[in-house]
Design brief:
Elements (H helix, E strand, L loop, with lengths): L12 E5 L3 H13 L3 E5 L2 H8 L6 E5 L7 H10 L8 E5 L4 H9 L4 E4 L4 H27 L2 E7 L4 E3 L2 H11 L16 H10 L11 E5 L2 E9 L5 E9 L5 H8 L3 H11 L4 H8 L3 H15 L4 H11 L7
Parallel strand pairs: 1-2, 1-3, 3-4, 4-5
Antiparallel strand pairs: 6-7, 6-10, 8-9, 9-10
Helix pairs in contact: 2-3, 8-9, 9-11, 9-12, 10-11, 11-12
Length: 319
Amino acid sequence: MVTNIELPNANSVVMIVDDTPENLALLSDTLSESGYRILVATDGVSALEQIQYLKPDIILLDVMMPGIDGYEACKRLKTEPKTAAIPVLFMTAMSELDDLLRGFGEGAVDYLVKPVRPPEVLARVEAQLNQARTIQRAENALNNGSYSALAITASGNITWLPAAGSRWLCEFLQLPALPENIKIGSLLPTPLLEWVKTQFANPENAEYSAFESIKCGVQFSLKLTPCHDLQEYLLLLEKRSGEWNLDSVKNSLGLTFREAEILMWISRGKTNKEVGLILGGSPRTVNKHLEHIFEKLGVVTRAAAVSVAMQRTSNLNSM
């Protein structure tokens, strides 16, 4: 009876890029025996071409190769959003500090000194894959949850922008795709950048106020919190749907049904005149209802009333 033994790394793909057959053979044997699936390329150009069709989980990249060298190949990988997150380990016989620092500057996460030692290769690959998986889990949670995040400096430069953060910015800016000038290293879009500047205007301010904006019935909110690195800040992003359950709004906030209707249309950017036309009343009547809404919710502005409604009502996302 044949027993199928599942290797521990059977789902991980390692790309080896090296122009020396002996190195390729040693690394391929070492990694495949430990359960990794292997991709092989003998130069930077063919490696970049392969990655367009099958993305590896980690790349072992030789520095000195014909055509484009390892530095240039790594640079191209890190400037492409689809491959920027792949960990790259340089392989080099060079031991000069400047050479090693250049590799890290191009985006490598670690390096292996040639001639490579198989146990060290396995240990470094496993360590970097574990770290990459942890980061991927965090990004998956953001991509599939109601919250997202991005990181910035105190001047508003973006230092981390996961896919969920990009989608939030697209919807906030009401654009089908994020402009090319909004990326890691660039400044936040103007409305958010101005808000960030006001938060840092007073150095003694220990607490940051929330950013709230309502567009087409959708509430966008943003909170600022310091990271462990005092030079970086995390922006927690949230979007709440504008689909309202009017009975839920009415009951949870103590409003009449007509007041709940008016508040819903106000959240969708309608003026008093437009709300009056929709509901068959006059702007004056709508304004009178708004006064009652403000009093019941303890607010003084339309935006504040909508914000309170969205925050207090648990069933706003259901029809």
